[in-house]
Amino acid sequence: MTFNVSNIRKDFPLIDSHCLKLIYLDNAATTQKPLVVIDALTEYYKNKNANIHRGAYELSIHSTDLYENSRKVIRKFIGAHKDCEIIFTKNTTESINIVAYSFCETFLKMGGNIITTELEHHSNYLPWLAACSRKSGELRLLPIADDGFFSMTLLERLIDNKTALVAVTGASNAIGLLPPLKDIIKIAHAHNVPVLVDGAQLIAHSFVDVSAIDCDFFTFSAHKIYGPTGIGVLYGKEAYLEKMHPYNYGGDMVDRIGETFGTTTWQNLPTKFEAGTQDVGAAVGLSTALRYINVQGTTCLHAYEQTLTQYTLKRLDSIKGITVIAKHSPRVPLISFISSIFSPYDISMLLAAHGIASRCGELCAQPLMKKLGLKNGLIRISIAFYNTKEEIDRFCDVLEQIQTSYL
Ligand code: PLP
Fold first, then answer.
1. CA of residue 124 to ligand 1 center, whole Å
2. Cα dihedral sign for 172, 176, 177, 179?
3. Which residue among 15, 44, 355, 362 sits deepest, i.e. has the most Cβ atoms within 10 Å of its Cβ?
4. Whose CA is nearest to atom 5 of ligand 1?
């Protein structure tokens, strides 16, 4: 299928809306939804809604099939081997918390350590800080060097025989960098240490194959890949998930309730980690979003986003008083910058006054802001495949106007 941005835009009601004159460049926060996803949610609640797993009637059986088929679509999309390795959660944050709680309960010994990096979103930092605190352990941070890259020698030095896990982002939500996942995983595995990849910013912009990169856990949120809010995914290797305790306790996840907690047994994977009524409609919405992306063709969507990103970087380079933080490639299609005159908040407000949606501040990445010495944070624009060169031109023109009016 040939890529045509005008046609793509017609698929997204909020983007195509002629009433809402908005240039939406806040896709890293959440993406807009194609009509097929909105329709799938409506259709589910209109004609297919029933609780899953325990109903003998046709509507419940059909709803269960929709839910389980969605799991299969997700498994294929990220290249996992088994359906039971795909756990539905609320979002990336919950997926990481499950691992930080359940994995660490078993595998993080008292006084042990977890390694994460200076690049992380708070969701891939605080759960580990809490886990280390529970085990009187240490959270070690792999620093980024001045050139924005990680030193694999330093990683080697940080890992020791008390390291339980390495947690690293697939792509930085703050500055767009792509850590060298394969190298990190290779080094960690050489020390028998598993790796969790926070895929929240990677999933929509890069081909993901969890089996090829051989990560042990992978997490993402549906709402960042054109799906609904309220649902996320935790991929985990079966061998680890089997050994981990449940995270939530309640309906569906129990096998037999014993006299004591110790004699109580749990359902098999993935149900062990899916206590209570799940968001079935959102699971259907997510699989519909992934099917939509597959039909458009991930390769051409990603290539288009990269072209727009490179174009934006070039244009920003020529605006006086604007400094882009980290211009590296490869990167995900988000760009952060600061102004020599205005605070990030002021720029974001002025852009908003011109109908341009951006994001500003610390971007849930305080350790990185501290490292970069950015007290007020950054302004971030983030691109999706429905954005156009004209939108980028308008954004850059407005930014230039804002800057020059005060220079
Ligand atoms: N990790 C990264 C890299 C993110 O960018 C985000 C959200 O922006 C998260 C985790 C948390 O995602 P959610 O809020 O969907 O749980």
1. 8
2. positive
3. 15
4. 173
Question: Distance from the CA of 93 to the center of ligand 1, in angstroms?
Answer: 6
- CB-ligand 1 contact for 201 (6 Å cutoff): yes
pLDDT by residue (tens digit) across 245-280?
999 999 999 999 999 999 999 999 999 999 999 999
Residue extents of the structural domains in the chain: 5-33+297-400, 38-294
Catalytic positions are: 364
Q: Give distance in angstroms: CA of 406 to centre of ligand 1.
A: 35
To the nearest 10°, report the CA torsion of 301, 302, 304, 308. 140
Could you tell me the distance, in angstroms and rounded to a whole number, from the CA of residue 330 to the centre of ligand 1? 20
- Cα 162 from Cα 137, distance rounded (Å): 9
Residue 92 Cβ contacting ligand 1 at under 6 Å:
yes
**What is the β-pairing status of strands 265-266 and 254-256?**
antiparallel
Model pTM?
0.98
| Alpha-helix residue ranges (DSSP H) falling in 135-197 | 152-158, 181-190
CATH number for 5-33+297-400: choose from 3.30.565.60, 3.40.50.360, 3.80.10.10, 3.90.1150.10. 3.90.1150.10
Contact 124 CB / ligand 1 (< 6 Å): yes
Quote the ligand 1 centre to 375 CA distance (angstroms).
21
Structure confidence by residue, pLDDT tens digits, 10-37: 999 999 987 778 999 999 999 999 999 9
Q: For residue range 315-330, list pLDDT tens digits in order.
A: 999 999 999 999 988 9
Does 123 sit in the ligand 1 pocket, CB within 6 Å? yes
The response to whether residue 121 sits with its C-beta less than 6 Å from ligand 1 reads yes
Segment 341-381, tens digit of pLDDT: 999 999 999 999 999 999 999 999 999 999 999 999 999 99
Distance from C-alpha of 165 to C-alpha of 107, rounded to nearest angstrom: 9
Does any ligand 1 atom lie closer than 6 A to the CB of residue 358?
no
Return d(Cα 279, Cα 277) in angstroms, integer: 7
Q: Could you tell me which residues come within 8 angstroms of residue 175 by beta carbon, excluding any fewer than 6 positions away?
A: 119, 148, 325, 326, 334, 336, 368, 378
The answer to whether domain 38-294 has CATH 3.40.640.10 is yes
What is the chain's alpha carbon radius of gyration, rounded to the nearest angstrom? 22
Probe residue for ligand 1, chosen from 92, 218, 364 as the CB with the greatest number of ligand atoms within 8 Å: 92
